[in-house]
TrEMBL record, chain A:
It comes from Humitalea rosea. Signal peptide: none annotated. This is L-lactate dehydrogenase complex protein LldG. Residues 130-225 form the LUD domain. It comes from the Bacteria. SUPFAM superfamilies: NagB/RpiA/CoA transferase-like (SSF100950).
From TrEMBL, chain B:
One of its GO terms (biological process) is lactate metabolic process. PROSITE patterns: 4FE4S_FER_1, 4FE4S_FER_2. Keywords: 4Fe-4S, Electron transport, Iron, Iron-sulfur, Metal-binding, Repeat, Transport. This is L-lactate dehydrogenase complex protein LldF. Pfam families: Fer4_8, LUD_dom. GO terms for molecular function: 4 iron, 4 sulfur cluster binding; metal ion binding. PANTHER family: LACTATE UTILIZATION PROTEIN B (PTHR47153:SF2). Coiled coil: none annotated. Residues 304-335 form the 4Fe-4S ferredoxin-type domain.
Length: 232, 475
């Protein structure tokens, strides 16, 4: 009922009936080809500069980055960062195969549970699916190995990200998503939840003055794993 | 929300004499304008992106029916539900019905202006369901029983001492002598308090910055993360969205997102930009079991094909009010409803009627700053002029204004009489004020001279000077 009323009023305003088939086909084509618009020049730079731009932007947005030479160095980087922040060596981790395969036993002091986030969690280790250099933005498509709650509930979030997964602009991340993902239930490429995260949580609601640590993590730390020879 | 737009003049007068409000405005406004200017300066392509943003929205509006149907079909394909609602009544009833279907007792809410427009909180509360606003600004306003005074910074009008006083009055289980050293302590207290609410809520209600036809996704943009907790933790997520939020593709949304945060807070990108598509998948470890979109018209489809269609491009960044001298003087509450500033002066009359909101399009100096900062180039001054014309045509403006305009238009249409009259006026004023150099008050111009002196005219009229220079140019 209301649907017809709304569509009818729109069409009256546009002085036409339902869209003719040929025009609808053109719009279908636009959705299928999803043309890009202008991409700012700031991310159209050589690979090593893109990585540097990403790091600069994360830091500008009050996040931190530690670069490590390979996956085997991740547990040490996590342990060092926790110690540096005066945090206990315990965390909750995304049950992602890449994270589970890391040599955690090298650092026997570290203990973790692989699960979703809960209200009392203090630190999470999350799997970084990809990142965008343009604004230092991390991407987290939800799935059983990458729960959304790990981005939200703990006070500190550590993201393990491979350097080869950093792209220049958002549009390149969309292409990755379209190419790599297919949702078993919907047949589409979009996950239930896709978060773009740029720095730790904050609010400027009190006197328009920025304070970190509103409802999400107060600290956001990226452990960047060098796996991209072109990026060095 | 109670409408006080008809009392704009009284509201504005009160606002100008409200010391607390004036302090808040003076403090916050330069931050908004300065941050935006810096963000824009750091993106050389910003002006081109404004044209692109305008074109994307125009393309979508020209095919709005098709994009809405395609969007809805894709939401359903992803396992979500779309509820088309023509009116605020319908939308309120639908939200209540969904909440009742799971026996909801508390509902968390992300900041949403459409929710304010519909009066969702009042409706839920009336039916025994407790709504909890979780955006920090909205949280304190709910406690104080006030409306938002700004569309992205709802507690724009409050100072630190207001926050302290309110928190002390409401969080009575905490030690009364606790010290609020700075803003961080306020934030920490709100975080702890709201964390319990997030975890206990049965339904989470958010707005939507964009709807994506290609994928059937809704998008929210926040800095606090409250919107994400609201839509992730409860069993049901309801996204409230008006029909003009739809855009065709992810690429289109991306271009608009490049404009949104820069125009709003002056950030390059907001902290959390989140795309929701359908409900929790079978193997997921978190997320809501049901995903509903309440798609709301509430008067917008009637703007199609009218002088006000371009207003539907608005992406609610608030740049227009942040740069408006009138908003800067009165704050948002004076406008008397949900949407203040220039965008509100255009939108409010279409949604609640020009007979109630006629003062708003008149509350403009037509300086044009709003249009010059609008990320999708909405010609706001032109539209306010349309409203003034309609108000005049419908005889809604007061007799003094109509009489004055009539006198002025008689002269304006008769250049010789106009020149004669202005010459006489200037000569008379010049003679009267020769000694003092300025008038401190003038009959029939008390409003103008209240805040400033009128300098005594010197020399001839503009036309006389213009004619003299033209003569001088020609040999």
């Amino acid at each position: 009922m209301s649907k017809d009323a709304i569509l009818g009023a729109i069409r009256r305003g546009l002085r036409r009936g339902p869209l003719p088939a040929d025009q609808a086909a053109m719009l279908e084509g636009r959705l299928a080809t999803h043309p890009r618009h202008l991409i700012p020049a700031r991310s159209r730079i050589p690979r090593p500069d893109q990585i540097a731009l990403f790091i600069r932007n994360v830091e500008k947005e009050f996040g931190t980055v530690a670069r490590v030479d390979g996956p085997e160095a991740v547990p040490g980087a996590v342990a060092d960062w926790l110690a540096g922040q005066n945090l206990p060596p315990r965390f909750v981790m995304a049950p992602h195969p890449d994270l589970l395969a890391l040599p955690w036993s090298d650092r026997p002091m570290l203990t973790f549970e692989a699960r979703r986030g809960e209200g009392s969690d203090t630190v999470s280790v999350q799997h970084g699916w990809a990142a965008v250099a343009e604004t230092g933005t991390l991407l987290f498509p939800s799935d059983p190995t990458r729960p959304t709650t790990l981005n939200l509930l703990p006070e500190s979030e550590i993201v393990v990200l491979r350097a080869s997964r950093i792209v220049g602009a958002y549009e390149e991340a969309w292409d990755l998503l379209r190419a790599e993902r297919q949702d078993a239930e919907t047949g589409g490429f979009m996950p239930r939840n896709l978060m773009f995260v740029t720095g730790p949580s904050r609010s400027a609601d009190i006197e328009q003055t920025l304070e970190l640590g509103a409802h999400g993590p107060r600290r956001l730390h990226v452990v960047l794993v060098e796996d991209d020879p072109a990026a060095r | 929300m109670h409408i006080t737009s008809p009392a704009f003049k009284k509201n504005a007068h009160r606002a100008l004499n409200d010391a607390g409000l004036q302090k808040a405005l003076k403090h916050a406004r330069p931050m908004f304008t300065g941050n935006r200017a810096r963000a824009v300066a750091n993106l050389p392509e910003f002006e081109q992106l404004r044209d692109i943003g305008r074109d994307i929205k125009n393309h979508t509006l020209a095919n709005l029916d098709w994009y809405l149907e395609t969007y809805a079909a894709n939401v359903e394909r992803a396992g979500g539900h779309v509820h088309w609602c023509s009116t605020a009544d319908e939308a309120r009833a639908k939200v209540l019905e969904i909440c009742r279907s799971v026996g909801a007792r508390t509902v968390t809410k992300g900041k949403s202006m459409i929710s304010e427009e519909l009066g969702i909180n009042e409706h839920l509360a009336k039916h025994g369901i407790t709504p909890v606003e979780t955006d920090l600004g909205e949280y304190i306003l709910q406690i104080r029983d006030e409306g938002p005074s700004h569309i992205i910074a709802p507690a724009f009008h409050l100072n630190l001492e207001d926050w302290e006083k309110t928190f002390r009055a409401v969080h009575t289980d905490l030690p009364a002598d606790r010290v609020f050293g700075d803003r961080r302590d306020i934030l920490a207290e709100a975080r702890t308090r709201l964390r319990e609410k997030f975890l206990a809520a049965d339904v989470g209600i958010t707005g939507a910055n964009f709807l994506i036809a290609e994928t059937g996704s809704s998008v929210i943009v926040t800095n606090e993360g409250n919107g994400d907790l609201t839509q992730t933790l409860p069993r049901i997520h309801i996204a409230l969205a008006s029909i003009e939020k739809v855009v065709p593709t992810l690429e289109d949304a991306t271009s608009l997102l490049r404009l949104l945060a820069r125009s709003a807070t002056g950030q390059d990108f907001s902290v959390y930009t989140t795309f929701s598509t359908g409900a929790r998948r079978a193997a997921d470890l978190d997320g809501p079991e049901q995903y509903h979109v309440v798609l709301i018209d509430n008067g917008r489809s009637n703007m199609m094909g009218t002088d006000f269609q371009e207003m539907l491009r608005c992406i609610r960044c608030a740049a227009c009010m942040n740069h408006c001298p009138v908003y800067g003087a009165t704050g948002g509450h004076a406008y008397g409803w949900v949407y203040p500033g220039p965008m509100g002066s255009v939108l409010t009359p279409t949604l609640i009627g020009v007979e109630k909101a006629g003062h708003l399009p008149n509350a403009s100096t037509f300086c044009g700053k709003c249009e010059s900062v609008c990320p999708v180039k909405i010609p706001l001054p032109k539209m306010m002029r349309h409203w003034r014309e309609r108000e005049f045509e419908r005889h809604l403006s007061p007799a003094s204004v109509r009489g004055g305009l009539k006198v002025w238009s008689w002269f304006a249409k008769r250049p010789a009489a106009y020149r004669l009259a202005t010459r006489a006026m200037i000569a008379a004023l010049g003679l009267l004020g020769r000694k003092k150099g300025a008038f401190r008050s003038l009959p029939m111009a008390g409003g103008w001279t209240e805040g400033r002196d009128l300098p005594v005219p010197e020399g001839g009229t503009f036309m006389a000077r213009y004619a003299a220079t033209q003569r001088g140019k020609r040999p």
